Amino acid sequence: MHQITCIDGLWIPNPNRGNDLGLWRGDSVVEVLEARGNILFHWEDHYRRMLVACTGHISLDKLPREEDILQKLKFLLTRGGHSYSIVHMQVTPGNSADLKIPDGKPMLTLDVGLHQIQDVAPLSLKTIPERRIFPLLKLGSSYGNIPRFMRHYKVKEDGFDSFLYWSGRQGILEAPYENIFYVTKDRWLFTAEAGVLHGITRKIILALAEKSKLFRGISKTKVHVPMLETCNEAFLTSTTKGTAPIKRIDEYVNFKTGDKTYTAKLRKLFLKYRENYYKERGAAALAHN
């Protein structure tokens, strides 16, 4: 058993969700985090963000307690037997007789699968004039989904791996599932602040960059397309990728990649931080990252 759902206080393996608004309307809150053994990476941050996304939309008092969720997750992780696991959490308003109005019994589903952060080949990305409506929230109906399926085939045809949300007022925002960073030629680290999801990996990278003194400064501000001419490097961050180098954004093809870049140095710092995080919490050391 690698998936379980809580409905009205009861935990049910693989329940019938035929009338679930998460299925019919994409009405859900999602969180994704990784684990080593049964140690969850930055659980507190992910859990807090999930609650914030539910607030005013899904009744928090009808969801299981944090202690109950953790107990079930650790059970699934122990039963799964993976060295590294990826954990998906989804909260929906619940079933609906008319597929519009929920029945008042929210559903929380936990799903555990195999995961390993691997090196990612340098990416080519295309900016598109779209943005998410509620960027600070991880909602199933908007986080990566709607434009991704309509746009992904097109950017592939144009020779790109994926795309970046772009706004005329706010500049380049984020990728469908990732935040984006830039390293300028004069050694500044830039990333967008407004209009993007404040990712957990993004938060860690910002802290590591500041502590490392690799950069002359760090700026969380708007990054418009013309500014790419001032950058030597760019990279993505996410739970599933960790960090991932970028070789091209639109027609800007001069981004550096490789072991000697600041992107690679930050990746090494992140993997070391991640290793120490698990070690300090009692997770067994592994021979791979």
Molecular structure report:
There is one protein chain. With 289 residues, this protein is of the alpha+beta class. It folds into two domains: 112 residues, Aminotransferase class 4, branched-chain amino acid transferase, N-terminal domain (D-amino Acid Aminotransferase, Chain A, domain 1, 2-Layer Sandwich); 154 residues, D-amino Acid Aminotransferase, subunit A, domain 2 (D-amino Acid Aminotransferase, Chain A, domain 2). Helices cover 26% and strands 27% of the residues. It is built from six helices and 14 strands. The strands form two sheets. Strands 9-8-7-14-13-10-11-12 form an eight-stranded mixed β-sheet. A six-stranded antiparallel β-sheet has the order 2-1-6-5-3-4. Strand 10 and strand 11 form a beta hairpin.
At CATH level 2, the architecture of the largest domain is Alpha-Beta Barrel
Q: Tell me the series of helices and strands, N- to C-terminal.
A: EEHEEHHEEEHEEEEHEEEH
Tell me, rounded to a whole number, the average pLDDT.
91
Counting DSSP E segments of at least 2 residues, the number of strands comes to 14
Q: Which spans have pLDDT < 50 for at least 5 consecutive residues? A: none
